[in-house]
Amino acid sequence: MSINILLTPKKPVSVLVDIIRHASKKTGGSTKNTNCKVKPKHRGWKVQDGHFVQAGHILVTQRTTRFHPGLNVGFGRNGTLFAMEAGKVVVTCEKFDPDWEHTWVQRMYAGRENQNIFKKYFNVIAQPQHNRFKLIDEV
């Protein structure tokens, strides 16, 4: 048995071919930190409570005065706290007694006149000096 198909073109047949072009790369959407020109400042505690430091070592970098200098600690122009002597770092929370006559204090602590205000202080306890010398003769 054979089947004969007779093709008689009545009309020219046009074939529609949809050509879809796919992206070869991902789209460049927004990402964080691209071409970042602002460098982080890394502010905060540099030395923890109980560590030993040398003179001149930076203890804290800060923009506003969150931490205050205590014993053997210096206060830089930009708010940096640094050790003035070698020793052990001790962080304490102490009662703060501001001068209420000062206008700046009145603005900052308005409504807290009858409350206890506590602040964090960085202290450096100096290492005891060696006692290896003997007194031989007084002048």
UniProtKB/TrEMBL annotation:
Transmembrane segments: none annotated. It holds the Pfam family Ribosomal_L27. GO terms for cellular component: mitochondrial inner membrane; mitochondrial large ribosomal subunit. Belongs to the bacterial ribosomal protein bL27 family. GO terms for molecular function: structural constituent of ribosome. Its main location: mitochondrion. GO terms for biological process: translation. Gene3D superfamilies: 2.40.50.100. It is found in: Mitochondrion. Keywords: Mitochondrion, Ribonucleoprotein, Ribosomal protein, Transit peptide. This is Large ribosomal subunit protein bL27m. The keyword Ion transport does not apply.
